Amino acid sequence: MERIGLMLGYFDPIHLGHLAMAQDAQKVYRLDAVYLCPLPESPEYAPVLNLKKRRKLILKCVSDKIKLYPDIIPLSADSLLIEVLSLVQKRHNDAAVFPIMGMDRLSRITDFAGIYSIPAVKALIVYSRIGYSSEKVVQLAQDSGAHSVFLRRLNAIPSSERVREQISLFNDVPEWVPSRVMHTIARKGYYLPNYKAMLRPTLSQSRLKHTVSVRKTAVDLAYRYNAPMLKTSVAAMLHDCAKCMTHCAMQKLAREKFLTEDGETLSSPALLHGVVGAYIAKTTYGIRDKDILNAITYHTVGRPNMTDIELCVLLADSIEPLRPKYPGIEEIRTLAKCDLKSAALASLRTTKSYILSIGGKYSMKAQDAMDDLLKKLTKIHQEV
Fold first, then answer.
1. Cα(55)–Cα(49) distance, integer angstroms
2. CA spacing 20 to 30 A to 360: which of 98, 135, 242, 272?
3. C-alpha 366: how far from chain center
């Protein structure tokens, strides 16, 4: 007889706690498979992400033993679990079904008699949660007709709410969320402010498309090089927030707010929009994180001792897919797949060659960044 675990929840988003429960249940109770079944919006809870997006995140975590339930289950409030279990029984014929849930969900069940009237259901596998008296809740369930409840304990299991709180603080929480899931969250901007809508009134359509493309490219780089993905995502979305201001308006703001007294920066829109953009990100978009603000400030010219976030945004700005082709771009894109610092250096060198070829004056700040990257790369190669 096939033994199936069924975990119902909103998975908003899915996290390592969900997977730990599924893996533990599969091992302890010798389950052939555990199906994760995300629920649509209900009177009980309105998920932040729609069902389609949450299912896509779950697909990042599936394996031979942990699977996404193939059907989308319609909701009908009180009898939801019973309806789902009935559908599972019909789909899997003679399988033994073990519903898996956290203590919070067990405490909300009212119709245990209905659950155990389904022949396929053999037992409820319940995991303790912080804030709940496990023994008390289980006893109440048993008193209400839950004649077979297996209580399990794991190390502290986070709630999706706590995960979302950390995302709002631009924390990737790798101890809670699989990196492949966080990669999609950061790439799409899930659970973050809708910066695209916020930027739309201030940027041209083409600039906004470039910005979204930079976010995707920068987050891909951050994922590849194990850099903070959420901070990279936000910095990439806001890196050009001052780009469509006139030069005069940027100069006026920079002088009024004492953002810079550097003549080279004030005289160049290309250099100034990073400085002004960081100020706008702070005052208009509420960004206080120094890593994000620095990535915005230095995304054009760089600086010595750049962080990986800064390197990802600078490089993505020059190689994102919508960027018009220029000499050397394909080589830089190829280099970006194997060495972040070398690709950033190549990008800065290419920009320098172009500026000098048209008779322009190259920034000494960018030269300082190039010299620093070359020094670091030389040291790495010597150590190897």
1. 10
2. 242
3. 31
Task: Could you please state the CATH topology (level 3) that the domain comprising 3-157 is classified under.
Answer: Rossmann fold (3.40.50)
CATH number of 179-383: 1.10.3210.10
Look-up of token digits 């309806």: 83
The helix (run of H) or strand (run of E) holding residue 213 is helix 205-224
Give dist(CA 218, CA 376) in Å, integer: 22
pTM recorded for the entire structure: 0.92
Same topology, domains 3-157 and 179-383? Answer is: no
Q: Where are the domains of the chain?
A: 3-157, 179-383
Tell me how far apart the alpha carbons of residues 145 and 255 are, in angstroms, rounded to a whole number. 73
Q: Exposure pattern of 296-324 as b/e (b: 16+ CB <10 Å)?
A: bbbbbbbbeebbbbbbbbbbbbbbbeebe
Q: Provide the pLDDT confidence category of residue 192 given band limits of 50, 70 and 90.
A: very high
Task: Indicate if the alpha-carbon torsion angle 305, 311, 313, 316 is positive or negative.
Answer: positive
Residue 256: CB atoms within 10 Å: 8
Cα separation, 304 vs 307, whole angstroms: 9
CA angle 3, 130, 193 (to 5 degrees): 95
